[in-house]
User: Fold these one by one.
Assistant:
Number 1:
Amino acid sequence: MLVNLGFIQLRFPSSIAIDPTAVCNDNVTNSSTCVINSGNITLSINGSIPALTSFLLTVDKVKNSAESTQTTSFTIYSYYDALYSSLVDRLETGLTVTMTANPITTASVTPLSLTTYAVTSYTLNFVLKDDISQNGYI
Amino acid sequence: MISFSGTGTILSQNSTQMIFTNIATADRFSLPLIFMGFSITTPPSTRSFSFKFSTEFLELGNVYDIETVSQTYQNNAGVITSSGITVTSAIINAVTSYQI
């Protein structure tokens, strides 16, 4: 159970960015305050929340990570009152998202010669949809 | 042979006492083992809490401290279960919404 001034803190993996103008809301505490600070979301409780309450927190304007790999785990902590020393429940492992690679749709192959057994050159033309950082490769 | 008697009283959360009287002179140097059981409700968070036990000697209305021991406890945090994360788009670099 959480009481008035208690709070829930949810941390996104560092590979995922949340826009500073993003909005978060939940299905339980309509009058509570949700504050986004970088990858940290703090939901301050206005009123009390009984045990076994099922939360659904929605956050918009979230930018997915730049790689199609599994993220590290999201973490969730709940605090009984306004102080960090009042930790109640936690989740630190297993809550991950696996990103999907963007398909390259604009691509063509042009051989200089289509004659069988010819030794020729090929030209591949394609458009990348996403940035590649330094030391990345194709 | 220890032959004194004791009376326990719970005055409040911060004042629980057991008074032994009629301790025989022969028992003055004995080492009695005292077992006390409490049924308590632990705090709702992992914030630590402690018990303090003291022995005192009462004589003619005066109280003299003998020994004190303090024991601190801390609850373990509960485990949050999650059915997972729903992402509107899981494509890399997409700006999307998350439901957790």
Note: The mean pLDDT of chain B is 85.
Number 2:
Amino acid sequence: MIVSNPKNLLEVRHLTRVFRMGGFMGKGELVAVDDVSFDVPAERPVILTIAGESGSGKTTTARMILGFVKPTHGEVLYRGKNILNMNNSDWKMYRQEVQAIFQDPYGAFNSMYTVDHVLKVPIEKFNLARTDEDAHQLMSGTLEVVGLRSEEILGKYPHQLSGGQRQRIMLARAFLLRPKIVVADEPVSMLDASMRAGILHLMLDLKKKWDVSFLYITHDLSTAHYISDSIAIMYQGSVVEMGPIDEVIENPLHPYSKLLIESVPIPDPEQRWKEHMDLPTREFRSQTFNGCKFYDRCKFRTDVCKTDRPGLKPNESRFVACHLYHD
Amino acid sequence: MSDQILEIRNLTAYYEVGPNPTRAVDNASLGTIRRGEIFGIAGESACGKTTLALAMLRLLKPPGHIRRGEVIFDGTDLLKLAEEEIRSIRWKRISYVPQSSMNALNPVMRIRNQISDSIEAHESGQSKDELDNRIEKLLMTVGLSREIAGMYPHELSGGMKQRVAIAMATALDPEILIADEPTTALDVIVQRGILQLLGEIRRRMHTIVLITHDMAAQAEISDRVGIMYAGKMMEIGRTEDVFKDPLHPYTRLLISSIPRLKIRTELAWITGLPPDLRNPPLGCRFHPRCPHLMAGKCDVEEPQLAEIKPGRLTACHLHGE
């Protein structure tokens, strides 16, 4: 039994998900998420980024938190309760207080309905309004919070709106339920640059004015640095480094975090990459390898890295999973 | 060998659907592209970048249609050539890596056979050994090991497939490589590898036209950059100059909307929507969203792309007369 800390709103404990791979291509297991733990505090809103490249397990982690995917091991606790054993009223509260927005603001709409529909469904499901008049008021008020004018939005079909407007409507839908946490999985990666900043500022606004915490799932460290308080960097299913955002971005400890941060292009022709980096000439990923998952690409590897997988251990104000920092 | 390799003047390509065609590329001029440079074309979705590339190579399919313009390559206007003549230039002298080409590899053919097919379509009569040798060397130039030749696309990661696509496009040693969004949908570290690879290809005296919406990628490797908006070329200049001192209000807003790692300056964003290209606004196409709108001027008279400082072109009334 894992002891919960009442200071935390959400606790992710040793979350692990193994996918079985079958079929004619051969059999095996893929550990998509491997013993991931972190917390979202209760006393103040935070934006926590889960960063990683494709296949790092960040989306599977998000899907387990939302209850879409069942963990193989570990658990997700909300207000101290395992989300998989919640009674009906706790589960309903969880479904109300933890909301999600996704990458594709186009796919989230049914093109046959006007956009009013996505706002009306939660109002009806959660009995948020008694009369049609109340419902309309609630919709307009919420659209205003996300920076939209209801007269320009209500009654329109999804194709008549921009990607930025659609993503704002998704945030409005989430916000209707007064969530404590919004899981935002790549919410700006399909938007044009000129619209991205607007959505990022809206997230900051919702945090500041309405105490909404965000789990920001992204591959994009630049936007993560812009809005988050802390960050967990994932590599092949494991968190390799976690801590306050400024510290991790300005002085990464784990060799993978270093490489990742160094590789982010700076939009300034006067700060081009100086060092040449070679991509692997072939790829290596073995589930049976017991050493560090970053071993084959690491510049600092030693013998111990080949045989022992480093765990995530505290290092001053952050956590890092690397033998360089373990005694 | 002349310094100029390609010149694009007043290129206009519309999608002819219904009574109002979509004016995807409208009177766009890139000026002269120089031999051995990386010329970037940037702009947001639906600004006409890809249509421009397709039109340059006459690869635009109906309802896309080139209305007018000139694409001068090595002294000849590509738009005036017969189909067989352009075919002898495409791929051999100017090659094109389309967007998401890494997903266009044939899933049931080994990499070696796909590359050899594309070579033999243009240069026949080589022995199998010669071809194999050439393919292995080619894979090495994009940083892949020779075993990759024997693999199928599903055995490769996205970044490796993209490198195969680039290898195929450079197989015949073309003078110009046009790469459309070569880094989109790839991981950050792989993106860096691909951009550095393009830098190496350029050093082998190829000219590259790099089409990408990713301004950070443009900042990283392009020598000069053209910024498109709503089918029009808004600004052209040396990449350093354009980033340091953008002339067009759209360029300035676009650049200040991109977050920079390690520097938390307040980001800008552009309100409103890009125009409907079936019915574009009068005057400057950016005027409905422009913070510097001069009523009676910008909404009436279309600004022309003009050189306002040496090597710096923009189409904006703020810099007129």
Note: The first strand of chain B starts at residue 4 and ends at 15.
